[in-house]
Amino acid sequence: MAHLRELEERWDCRIVYFSQDAIAPQAARNLSHKLKAAGTSLRWASDMRPEPGLTPEYCRELKDGGALSIALGIESGSPRVLELIHKGVSVQDMQTAVKNLAAAGIAVEAMCFTDFPSESAGEAEATLAFIASQRKQISLFICGRFGLSRGARAARFPADYGIAKIWRLDGDELGTGLFYEECVPSKSDLERQKIDQAIDRLSTGWWLHAYPWAGALSTAHTLFWYARCGTDVFRRHADTPRRMAVKHPSPVRSARFDVQRMMRVAAGREAEIWHRLIYEDKAVSSRLYHRYSNAYPPQLPKINKRQPARPRHTAKRPGRS
User: What is 2-145+188-242's CATH superfamily?
Assistant: First the structure.
């Protein structure tokens, strides 16, 4: 509390984010009580587990003590996957936690992933269905792909999770990544593609802003938007990009590059390169990366034959005509 008061008085700090994997419920309650008793206007955010203890009364205590946003580790909407990862909470527990936090006026951010070892396409869809069913209570969500890490139970007992082998990449000096192959592939490439498309469709229900990342979970600008415009701001403005495009159409009539297409091409090539590095070479280096990237043909600007070529101008050096 002394540290928080110093931040508030010295720097006029009004919002604090506690960067912690999961703040303990009792610690969050104690913090809220002390902030309320101090009469401070400081507001805070952090990560929590969707515990059964997040009752309506508890969530109101957090709100009264300055809680602005809570990011919940939902992980999956599949009961079997939740049991596999030893989550310790049920789908119903998570639904109740989301409901109670939102009802108290706290922004709820849901953190999920797909592609846990042995997860089927239907189980991945259950995670997206969970988000869709709670859409009116969820302020933002993220759904990434599972990544294996050292020390995780799935890494220590791979056979229990249908993992055939695990490897690191040669050249990864810090040992930041573990990669694995399943004994039996749980999804086809087509199923993974459909899941990615479903995530894209689901995300259109929220407004995601470009830099400085308003709309990204647990970032400063997202918290500023919650504080100023309400916990549902990113849902309310989901159609902002479309409305702005209609109201203020781009003045560009003829561009030399189709930027959107080039972004798709670049993303596809990047995925192909990393697939070869991880699953074929099992090694990473700038030499290998550039060997593969340089093999792609360059993307050249298109030529618009309807318009005459414009003369090129060069800047004049000082003292010369």
Answer: tm_1862 like domain (3.80.30.20)
- CA torsion angle for 217, 221, 227, 232 (degrees, to 10)? -50
d(CA 72, CA 88): 14
Strand 67-75 to 43-48 pairing: parallel
Binned at pLDDT 50, 70 and 90, residue 254 comes out as: low
Is 50 exceeded by the pLDDT of residue 70? yes
CB-based contacts of 289-298 (< 8 A; 24+ apart in sequence): 293/269, 296/269
Residue 197 tokens, joined? 């498309």
Per-domain boundaries in the chain: 2-145+188-242, 251-293
- Long-range (24+ apart) CB contacts under 8 A made by 25-29 are 25/51, 25/53, 25/54, 25/58, 28/62, 28/67, 29/58, 29/61, 29/62, 29/65
